[in-house]
Amino acid sequence: MLRPNPLPLELSLQPFTVSAARDFGVGRGRLAGADLARPFHGVRTPDAFAAEDQDPLLLLCLQYAPRLAPWQFFWGETALALVGVPTPRWPHRVGLHVAAHRPAREPRTEGVIGHRLQVREPAIVVLSGLPLEHPVRAWRQAGSLWGHDDLVAAADAIVHQGWGTVDELRDEIRVLGGRSARKMRSALNHVRSGVESPEETRLRLLIVRAGLPEPEVNWILRDEYGRAIARLDLAYRRWRVAVEYDGRVHAEDPRQFERDADRWSEIRRAGWRHVRVLRHHMRGDRPRAVALVREALHDAGWGS
Question: What's the CA gap between 57 and 52, in Å, rounded?
């Protein structure tokens, strides 16, 4: 089998448009080569570009980037996912959203969801060379696509990562709330500072929705000498009950499992009840997590 002619160096390691390739003198036959993927109309990606361990959404955005007009940027849930803000769980799939402010035009091509926004001063973040909507604005934009708990988890992450405050998120709703404004204001009422994972958020919401008291978030348990014993995901100081979500597969990291087991023992030695919630405890119409927390609180004197 004949090897394809090498591409110009400028095109050999990154996605490129067909028009750019023609400017380099690359012919139609070479652009049809089997070593070039065609992720979008008018774009080619050399095999050397795609890494197996690369985030699929980031890869898709990098492949689309050559088609971006100077006034276009990644929007809503796409921008949130790219900066590491949690998105809804499976079966939801984050779409490839690209936007532009009026009077400029949004893209219209297969595989891309285009949005034309109101006239407004842009607030763009650049990540890996990609222009993104600022996460505070992107969170509001996701309001029409996501449910309550997903919006709370994302807002918790935005606040924790330092992208914005609850007041800034609230101001964004006030300025351009749209039809989902009521849902988003409700979500902001449940945002708490210091949350470190979306599952912590979902567990807290699950507990409160079941009628149990709201726990404190990431509270530090100390011994009588002030030495930190553990940072607790969710803590009921009054009843000395610690609730923690554990979604890792410890068989892959036995040393981490051993450290955690020692930590759980220290929590119990400090006179606290420790409730360890696993992934399967969160599933179903009557999740076991609620019963575990309720039982620990009752044993500690809540409701008596």
Answer: 13
| Range list of β-strands (E), the chain | 16-17, 36-37, 43-46, 73-74, 97-101, 113-117, 124-127, 130-133, 216-222, 228-236, 241-246, 273-278
pLDDT in tens, the chain (304 residues): 567 888 999 998 899 999 999 999 999 999 999 999 999 999 999 988 876 677 999 999 999 999 999 999 999 999 999 999 999 999 999 999 999 999 999 999 999 999 999 999 889 999 989 999 999 999 999 999 999 999 999 999 999 999 999 999 999 999 887 788 999 999 999 999 999 999 999 999 999 999 999 999 999 999 888 999 999 999 999 999 999 998 765 456 777 777 777 788 999 999 999 999 999 999 998 999 999 999 999 999 998 6
Burial 200-226 (b: 16+ CB within 10 A, else e): bbbbbbbbeeeebeebebbbebeeeee
Closest CA to 70 of 9, 13, 24, 126: 126
User: Which domains are delineated in the chain?
Assistant: 9-46 (no CATH), 56-188 (no CATH), 198-299 (3.40.960.10)
What is the chain's length? 304
Q: Whole-structure pTM over 0.90, yes or no?
A: yes
- Distances in Å between the Cα of 32 and the Cα atoms of 26, 36, 282 are 11, 7, 49
Q: Contact, 152 vs 208, CB < 8 A?
A: no
